Amino acid sequence: MNNMTLYVKKDSPVHLVDPLTKLLFTFFSITLTYIVSNHLAVLLILLCTFTILVAGKVFKYILPVIGVSFLLILSIIIVQGFFHPDRETLLFEVGPIPIYKEGFSIAFLITLRVVNMVSAFGVLILTTKPDDLVNALLRKGLSPRFGYVLLSVLQIIPQMIALTGKITDAQRARGMETEGGLWLRFKSFIPLLGPVILNSLNETRERSIALEIRGFNAKGPRTYLHKHETYRYGLHLKILLTVIFVAVVVWRFVS
Amino acid sequence: MSVLTVTNLKYRYPAQDKSIFALNDLSFTVGKGEFIGIVGRNTAGKTTLCYALSGLVPHFFKGAYGGDVHIGVMDVLSYEISDIAAKVGLVFENPFSQMTGAKFTVYDEIAFGLENLGIPREEMHERIRASMQLLDIEGLGNKNPFSLSGGQMQRVAIASVIAMKPDILILDEPTSQLDPEGAEEVFRVVGKMAEGGMTIIMVEQKMEKLAAYADRILLMHDGKLIQDGKPAEVFSRDDLELYGVEPPMVVKVSRTLQVRNEETGLYPITQKEMPAELDIAFHVVETSGKNTNTTSEIVVRNLHFGYENGNDVIRGLNVSLQGEPIAIIGQNGAGKTTFVKLLKALLTPQRGEIVIDGVRSTDSTAAKLASRIGLIFQNPNDQIFKNKVIDEVMFGPLNIGQSPEVATENAKAMLELVGLAGKEEENPYDLSLAERKMVAMASILAMDTDIVIFDEPTMGQDYSGKSKVKEIIHSLYEQGKLVICILHDMDFVADTFGRTIIFSEGGMVFDGPTREAFAQEDALRAARVEQPHLTQLARKLGYEGIILKENELQTANMFE
Ligand SMILES: Nc1ncnc2c1ncn2[C@@H]1O[C@H](COP(=O)(O)OP(=O)(O)OP(=O)(O)O)[C@@H](O)[C@H]1O
Ligand SMILES: [Mg+2]
């Protein structure tokens, strides 16, 4: 996390795609999984997203995130499988809890959607520099204030990691044990929470002063340090994505 | 025509007592191309004045506001910060707060303000390169702004504002973390910009430099303007110390010798103005070695460390630290902070070992070492994480097993020692940077460790703050503790430390008595530090040796 971003620097065709196309992809990919309710279709979309991650050479970076959301997923399966109102066909039992097919089927669908959502965001965030994304949006006329709010949202995770590291250092420098077994680490996590939240609020305030004083909210025309590399296939890709999106929507409501 | 007019400016922070004003009825004007220095003790209101001149007060910091600030024809109250930012540049006291977090390389960070101003791309590149060259950070363009040393970050902060070429440039203690040569460089650059028509307003504790570069000095105290005059006039005041300002060394010497300019009756304020023939003698007073307290011992063998692979920051260090207080000096980014973090086991050596009183640091953890070795961080914001001063100071003592009663007592005593008695219940974030640094110091001292390491304790401190630090260091040594201190203030080093280590590029270029250290001209140059002002003055007056302390000067009238 040396760079304070989630962006992974790699040489890949996905990295070359312009931020807005990727943003469009992320948006379409996520909404489509909610528009269609067919397992196979959602699975297909997920496979597409995975393929893009692989092509972007960042697939392995998304695995831990999926891993973390696995806990969430597991609880969805149990809750839906057990409590879903149309309990008819018993599928299997987890210990004493019976899991019914109807509920499981829905839980499975939700799982696919969640994994796809995480991965689609992965495509955007892992292969796009956050400042490139914000600049691309500013160029399209987004207000700077909104642009930097978006940036700080994108930066929440790395910012929290950096802050946690800093506070852990401050704490262990003054005798709080943070190194050692899992339990110890877990125990030391709790006194971290308060300071991390407190400090991040303060940092956010400081950053906003820093932005103000450098005129980020200026009304005049702004310029950009880096040339806007117009991605050759940007328009084609955008059209393609829109066509697919519209096609799926039409298919969904006609059939 | 004046570019800046301040009339009856009054301001009170929202959280402040009704009777206290951070700025209390200030009036002055500044002409184009003037270089104004602002001096005064730590709570005088200098930083608040900087905020008021750049529009942060009253637009960002609300509170009670009265009077009027005009920038050219623009009145600060009715324009927005973004309009003001195009004309007025502000360099913050703490460079860490200046980083926008919106950019991921130093180069892009400097570009940020220029993009907002709408500067054409070609010119942008030109300005960035020029300002990086002025601040000597050309090699850092691709680094992340947050993985820089304190001094490097301060350089980036200055470069990012200079590149915007504001009409008025406000700098709040811009050289507090710079190595001596870097500080001189900043003054030279800024002085040149003033000649080119930029108006400079600079808060500083380095009086020598202000004396040499400023056109006018504003002396502030408790939010009021005490004097607005030429440097020679302000620095010739005999009550300067009352306002927490230590006059330049030349003035101190002139005071004792009663050397005055015949026409004006003022003291000379720079070495250049000092007459070469003076009724003065020098004699070296050896104090080091007199005290032979035994302290803890740190032995470092063949130490190697780097943040990134293949890029060592510490390159094969061997040293034994024990006995009298030790000063570490050296250029920004030399690896001083990295070194002390290794000693404290916050970083793990890649090769070599650190042995503290016979125990290898790698066999212990930072937490276990906490009761033995205390480190006061360079940036207090990295150290402070509680929202009440007293809780912050008690955190360490409680962790290392002091009972709540003892810890409270210790904490109160230490806050008293650093001059913060009565601020126990305040939120550290509402305190000034200098006060926060003191909170950080108290919170380590309260742990009563055998070894105390200070990372730039004099940063941002005024006269009385520095004297306090000096006393603390002496008394720690008297209690038999090992004191190690990283510093950029050579006068302070000369006055306080018997042993000095000169760091340069991850290694030591000298380790020995301070008097010898300041005789090593090549090593000093390599490490981009300079001799103490007193030493330079004695040289100028024809003394060949190294003079470190004021009691080494003898004047004829002292014998009368
Ligand atoms: N977290 C980090 N990640 C990567 N590089 C770092 C990090 N911290 C410091 N560095 C680099 O290591 C080198 C030494 O930094 P260090 O902070 O030890 O310098 P220093 O001597 O304390 O300087 P200063 O006088 O400016 O405080 C610098 O080149 C700096 O850019
Ligand atoms: Mg340092």
TrEMBL record, chain A:
Which membrane topology term applies here?
Answer: Multi-pass membrane protein
Q: One short Pfam family name for this protein?
A: CbiQ
CDD domains attached to this UniProt entry: EcfT
**Transmembrane regions listed in the UniProt entry:** 23-54, 61-83, 103-126, 146-162, 235-254
Any one annotated GO CC term: plasma membrane
Task: Tell me the compartments it is located in.
Answer: Membrane
**Protein name as catalogued:** Cobalt ABC transporter permease
Q: Which organism is it from?
A: Sporosarcina luteola
From TrEMBL, chain B:
Q: State the NCBIfam families in the record.
A: PRK13648.1
- Give the GO molecular function terms: ATP binding; ATP hydrolysis activity; ATPase-coupled transmembrane transporter activity; cobalt ion transmembrane transporter activity
Q: By what name is this protein known? A: ABC transporter ATP-binding protein
Question: Mind telling me which Gene3D superfamilies this protein's record contains?
Answer: P-loop containing nucleotide triphosphate hydrolases
**Organism the protein comes from:** Sporosarcina luteola
Q: Where is the ABC transporter domain?
A: 4-247, 298-530
PANTHER family xrefs: HEAVY METAL TRANSPORTER
Domain of life (superkingdom): Bacteria
Gene Ontology cellular-component terms listed: ATP-binding cassette (ABC) transporter complex
